[in-house]
Structures are given as C-alpha cells and as structure tokens.
C-alpha cells in the first residue's frame, strides 16, 4: 500500500496520512452515465472536487485575462501592466525567444494556453481550502502532453512535408550501418518518451508536493492536538517544514508550468529546424 | 480482469485507483477546459494584446516621425529666414549704393550749376565793368579835353576854334595812351 505511515493509534484523533486517494474524491455530479473502462464502470461526465478546482482555475484565468485586456491603454495601469507582463513573459521569453517572431506568433496561442492552464492548476495546490493541484490527476498533464506531441509533429510535417519523419528517424550524416542503433533510439526518445516524460514530470511533481504538504500539516495536527505534551515540539518542527515546503511548492508550480511550456516550444523548434 | 494492463493488476478494491490510468471524466473535462482556454487566448486575449502592441509601436513611430517633421519644418523655416535676411541685406546695400550715386549726381549737378552761375556772373561783371570803363573813359575824355582847353585858353589867352581844339585834345590823349603803353 502507498500509506506506510498509516499507524493509526487509538487516540481520539488518529493520524491522517496523505493518500493517493486524495486525488480521487467522490463523484459529486453526473455520476450516472457510466462506461466500461478497463474493467470497471466509470462515469463519463462525473464531476468531483478535482474537476471543480480545475474549472475554478480556468474561470480565474479567463476572468483575469479577459477583463485585464479590456480597454487596454497605451500607457498601462498597474493591473494592465501585470497582465501584459504575464503575456509578455510567455511571448518574448518562450515563444519568440525559441521560435523567432514569425513561427512564435503561429504557436503563441497554444503555448500561452499551456503555460497559464498548467500554472493556474498547479498553484491550487497551495491555495487554502483548495489544497490540491488540478494537474495532480493525470488527465490534464496527459492531455497537454498529447497536444504538445501533436503540435510538434504538425509543425514538422508542415515545414518539411514528406521528409520530417525520415529526418527524425534517420538523421542525415550518420553512417548507414549505425541506423540499426540510432533509429530505435531516435524513435523512442522523440516519439515515445517525450509525451510520457512531459506527463509524468508534471503530474508526479504535483502529487509529491501534495503528499509532502499533507504529511507535514497532518503530522503537525497530530502532534499538537492528539499526541500533545513532549510531542508538541515535533509539531513545531513539522509546521516549519510545512511552511517552507509551501513556499517551495509555489516555486515548483511556476517552474513546472514554465518547463512544460518551454519543452513544448523546444519540441516545436526542433521539428521546425530538422535538417533536410 | 482479462483486458486489464499489467500495471493495473494491483486491483486492491476501490480504495486506491491507479493514478496513471486517466478516467473518462478526467480526460473529457480536461479537454473541455483546454479548448475553452485555447479559444479565449487565441480569439480574445492575444489579438487584444497584439493590437495594443501594434498601437504602441505605431504611437512610438508616429512620435518619432512627428519629431522629424517638426525638425525639418524648423530647418526649412530657418533657411527661408536666412534667405530673406540675405535678400534684405542685398536690397539695403543696393539702396545705399543708389543713394550714394544719387547724392554724388546731385552734388555734381549743383557744382556744375554753381560754376555756370559764377561764370555768368563773372562775364556780366566784366561786361559791366567794361561798359563803365568805356563810359568813364568817354566822359573823362570830354571832360579832360574841356578842362585842358579851358586851362590852356586861360594860359594862352586866346580862344581856339573847336576843330583845332579837338585835334589837340586827341593828339594829347594819343600821346598819353602811348606813354602808358610803353611804360
């Protein structure tokens, strides 16, 4: 089991260890239409706490950017300059920097969407009362990884029609005999590992972040109110760690959003730059 | 159980779902949110941002252009001012030269006229003097003759007839004139 610390005592308030089940809360809405899914019945449109958190993140992002870009002025107000800074960071720092202005403009909507969607769903992991990242469940990371996968293949095929896969799998300038080794490596690294690593890097960061925070705060709760006495000192320690890791999780949330958007852009760049 | 992939075998009831297996609702709602966000960024937010950037670039370019225009205008104004100034200077010089020439001409005219006048006055004076002299001479001639005759008559005691006396007077005067001429 994934809960080795579940040493529930007989105290009035037992220790609540973090669990992977936190990411699969009960379905609250639309539990009805179900589908046979890998051996169990799953609701098709089920909405649980995670889905609500994701929708809330999306709503916040929509409100910030739709209202923030309404009636924009040449000389920005303070609010407008924050919105401009966010969009400018993705535009200049990621898209134009790696793809140049022409291609950067083509893929900018996609890259901007990925960055802000991931960022807003990551940050819910440390927002009080939400306390779990919307990207901690595989759906969003997997979907975005597949979108990135489709985007770089589309970019490559559009730029080098007919030659993209050949160039990617049989890089020019390599002795023909070496293709026996090179081609499988290229295939796995480019077309198999990229979406998997994108998905797992994001999801696991968020899952681990959540488990760590819950562990620290649950332990604090346990030491302060269940164990008491001498153990309160431990509680101080775990609370401090929890605070430190909350700050760290902010960094991770921003960093993972940046990494996801950056890697998507790098893959597109590599596809566009593929040698003839 | 038959179609379950290997990593799902740990089928320990409902307590811990496999986190690597996406549920249908997870995928569906993720996709819905992604599409909504993509459309909003693509069709609303980024075009607005781009419009603002274009507007800002245009404003900066317009400002630069306006400044350049103003500068060119100022340069043109300065040039025209300078040409006008040069023209005015040339005009003033010309007027001055003209005035100088006119003054010289007037002066010369006046001088010439004065000389003429002076000459005329001189000639007139000469003429008058000559006339006076002639008049004085002739009256003197008669008076001197008469006086001399009277005197000589008194000296001689006899009168002379007019014809002889006239001849004597004339001879005397001719001698006199001769004397003055030789001296």
Automatic annotation (TrEMBL), chain B:
Residues 64-98 form a coiled coil. GO terms for cellular component: plasma membrane; proton-transporting ATP synthase complex. InterPro entries: ATP_synth_B-like_membr_sf, ATP_synth_b/b'su_bac/chlpt, ATP_synth_F0_bsu_bac, ATP_synthase_B_chain. It holds the Pfam family ATP-synt_B. GO terms for molecular function: proton-transporting ATP synthase activity, rotational mechanism; proton-transporting ATPase activity, rotational mechanism. CDD domains: ATP-synt_Fo_b (cd06503). It is a single-pass membrane protein. Its main location: membrane. It comes from the Bacteria. The chain crosses the membrane at residues 27-46. It is found in: Cell membrane. Keywords: ATP synthesis, Cell membrane, CF(0), Coiled coil, Hydrogen ion transport, Ion transport, Membrane, Transmembrane, Transmembrane helix, Transport. NCBIfam families: ATP_synt_b (TIGR01144), PRK05759.1-3 (NF004412). F-type ATPases have 2 components, F(1) - the catalytic core - and F(0) - the membrane proton channel. F(1) has five subunits: alpha(3), beta(3), gamma(1), delta(1), epsilon(1). F(0) has three main subunits: a(1), b(2) and c(10-14). The alpha and beta chains form an alternating ring which encloses part of the gamma chain. F(1) is attached to F(0) by a central stalk formed by the gamma and epsilon chains, while a peripheral stalk is formed by the delta and b chains. Belongs to the ATPase B chain family. F(1)F(0) ATP synthase produces ATP from ADP in the presence of a proton or sodium gradient. F-type ATPases consist of two structural domains, F(1) containing the extramembraneous catalytic core and F(0) containing the membrane proton channel, linked together by a central stalk and a peripheral stalk. During catalysis, ATP synthesis in the catalytic domain of F(1) is coupled via a rotary mechanism of the central stalk subunits to proton translocation. Component of the F(0) channel, it forms part of the peripheral stalk, linking F(1) to F(0). This is ATP synthase subunit b. It comes from Agrococcus sediminis. The gene is atpF.
